[in-house]
Amino acid sequence: MTVAITPQHMEAEIRRYFAACNAGDYDALVSCFTADAVHYFPPGLPEVPWRSADVIARKWVWCVENLGSQWSIEKILCSSTAPEAVIEWTHWKRKAGTALRGDEWYVFDTATGLIKEIRAYYASPADSSVPIAELVGFDYAGRGYRLTAP
């Protein structure tokens, strides 16, 4: 059985996920993901990517408790032909008085309608110490991404 992954469904799920993040609600966070979900990040963070609904939920709860994290969704674009969406967000780190802006690419599981993958991209300088600035642990070659310049 498959779930109809409409743009409305994807937007509602992303908004539910952000509400759970902002509440620091472990159970609500876990319920947004497939058990084997993966959250990819750019280089520079420890212990990335985050693998599993449990790990993702625990890490965001930690951010809320320790950094005063809150997030706002700035824009959402949902595909009408694939179970994928893209958003722009701001991560407010209130205890430090800073913020980080970025984008995320979401992939939804067609069997459950839950989030199975998030790929985060930050609005920050590229890391000049690496030949290709890319997400840690993401299988670019396996997904058909170019590995050399055209």
* Spatial sequence of strands, sheet with the most strands: 2-1-6-5-4-3
Helix fraction, binned, reads: 10-25%
**Mean pLDDT level:** 92
The number of strands is 6
Uncertain residue segments: none
The main β sheet shows up as: 6 strands, mixed
**Whole-angstrom Rg:** 15 Å
CATH architecture: Roll
Description of the structure:
It is a single chain. With 150 residues, the protein is an alpha+beta fold. It has a single domain (7-122), classed as Nuclear Transport Factor 2, Chain: A, CATH 3.10.450.50. Helix content is 25%, strand content 33%. It has 3 helices and 6 strands; from the N terminus they run ααββαββββ. It has helices at 7-23, 26-30, 53-67; strands spanning 33-40, 50-51, 69-78, 84-93, 98-108, 115-122. A 6-stranded mixed beta sheet has the order 2-1-6-5-4-3, with helices on one face. The longest helix has 17 residues, at 7-23. It is globular, with a radius of gyration of 15 Å.
Summed up:
The protein has 150 residues and is α+β, with helices and mostly antiparallel strands.
Key terms for this structure?
single chain; 150 residues; alpha+beta; Nuclear Transport Factor 2, Chain: A; six-stranded mixed β-sheet; 6 strands; 33% strand; globular
Question: Topology of this structure?
Answer:
Elements: H1 7-23, H2 26-30, E1 33-40, E2 50-51, H3 53-67, E3 69-78, E4 84-93, E5 98-108, E6 115-122
Parallel strand pairs: 1-6
Antiparallel strand pairs: 1-2, 3-4, 4-5, 5-6
